Amino acid sequence: MASPAPPRIFSRRRRIAGLRRASVRQAQRDAARYLMDDMVEDILDRLEFIRMSPARVLVIGDWTGTLALSLRGAGSDVTELDMATLDEEQPIDAAPYDLVVSLSSVDRVNDLPGALLHMRNALAEDGMMIASFLGAGSLPNLRRAMLAAEPDRPAARMHPLVDNQAASALLQRALFKRQVVDGRSLNVSFASLDRLVSDLRDQGLGSALANAPAPLGKAAKKRADAAFLAGANDKGRVLENFEILTLTGWKD
């Protein structure tokens, strides 16, 4: 009996459009890229700590190109793919790889267990997968602002996020061995809600929900701005939290 299709929460078309918009925005001098920079630095630190020098690597989602550049400098043969050229819910070609890295990508697929399983199947024996993305606990001030904008009937405007417990279960379901799930916080201050939204768009993290609600009206936007700034410190800035979740698993 065939398994039921996963619910359609995300739109692949909207994800690709957001990535292309981010690529254009990155040409601006002040474009934000701190989340991807943090993830890349963390991956390189992990590989150095375990003294792993993979021969063949697949990097998914790093639109900065920094991770691939560093790995090639260390002698790895690296293939780079993004969500426009790789459907994470389909088998991965040109396997096997000694290392598969996914950055800010698989958290916005409809079939996350399937995407993790495809990455596992793309690994060579004893190969390793690392996936980093924004996890539960991220953007509490933005969530509060969105709820305040439409107090009577708030629309679904933000993505559901994965927590540590769910991530561990997902790795087990995808048949990974020696699973490790850990999280870390990255705090960034903002003077306005508009700047936070701009930073998210710079980094390809705008909404990719399949059923996108209409934009906020003027009154709702005013309520959102006020709710966001209600959490400001004495310098008029709001400290927003990004919780970065990292999943690590080995094939055997």
UniProtKB/TrEMBL annotation:
Single biological process term from Gene Ontology: methylation
Sorted alphabetically, the keyword list is: Methyltransferase, Transferase
Coiled-coil positions are none
Presence of the UniProt keyword Methyltransferase in the record: yes
The molecular function terms of the Gene Ontology recorded here are: methyltransferase activity
What is the top-level taxon of the source organism?
Bacteria
InterPro entries named in the record? Malonyl-ACP_OMT, SAM-dependent_MTases_sf
Q: What is this protein called?
A: Class I SAM-dependent methyltransferase
